[in-house]
Amino acid sequence: MMALLFILALAQQDARRVPRNILNIPRCKAFDFSDEEFINNFRLSKTLAFQLIEEIKPFLEPKTTRKDALSTEIKLLCALNFFAFGSYQKKVWNDLPILMSRGIVSHSIREVSKAMSKNLLQKYVKFPDDQSAEKTLKEEFFKCCGLEGVLGTVDCTHVAIIAPSNDGYQHESNYVNIRGWHSINVQL
Questions:
Q1: pLDDT for the residue numbered 143
Q2: Residue 151 pLDDT greater than 60, yes or no
Q3: For all residues of the chain together, what is the average pLDDT?
Q4: Which end of the chain is more exposed for a tag (fewer CB within 10 A), N or C?
């Protein structure tokens, strides 16, 4: 009888306890955003984001059986937000319903970037391989933007940095952008 009471007490205790890993699972409600909010945060439509998630999923699946591993969806949206704004400290933490540490955000960006460049780059980034295609592309660019002889463009963004010291090699003022904060202008 005493053993039965002890087992019941343990069962009651377990029922009240919330497993630690359930509390730590980052939940992403970004797909609950309106279409406009979603595009403002990720620079892609929800449809395109879903397609990208499905395409990159085989390369980003967690290599662990832990229940609290980040999903492909969260990793990709985190990286897309960084690609859109060039900073993860402010945007992901303040604007998105994703609670993650800097280290995890940074790791997600690196993992997504590697997976995309290794597995998707050749499929989507192509320059014409014959003169006819090159001519067509130049004409389309001219119609679109009024620029002659253009085959493609590259976008850059400012990535926030800690102000460098004025040590004779670096000049802090060289790293202040037009908005007044320290950054490096990079191609992503």
A1: 93
A2: yes
A3: 79
A4: N
Give the DSSP H/E element, type plus range, for residue 33: none
If you count DSSP H runs as helices and E runs as strands, how many of each does the chain have, helices first? 9, 2
- What does 67-132 look like in DSSP terms, one character per residue? TTSPPHHHHHHHHHHHHHHS-STTHHHHHSS----HHHHHHHHHHHHHHHHHHTHHHH----SSHH
Task: Copy the structure tokens of residue 44.
Answer: 């892609």
Whether pLDDT at 6 is above 90 = no
CA atoms of 45 and 161, how far apart (whole Å)? 29
Task: Specify the higher pLDDT residue, 187 or 4.
Answer: 187
Residues 6 or more apart in contact with residue 26 via CB below 8 angstroms: 70, 74, 98, 99, 100
- Other C-beta atoms closer than 10 Å to the C-beta of 12 total 10
Q: Which residues are 182's β-sheet partners?
A: 176
Question: Using CB atoms within 10 A of its CB, is residue 75 exposed (0-12), middle (13-18) or buried (19+)?
Answer: buried
- What is the structure's pLDDT at 128? 84
CA–CA separation, 173 vs 54, rounded Å? 44
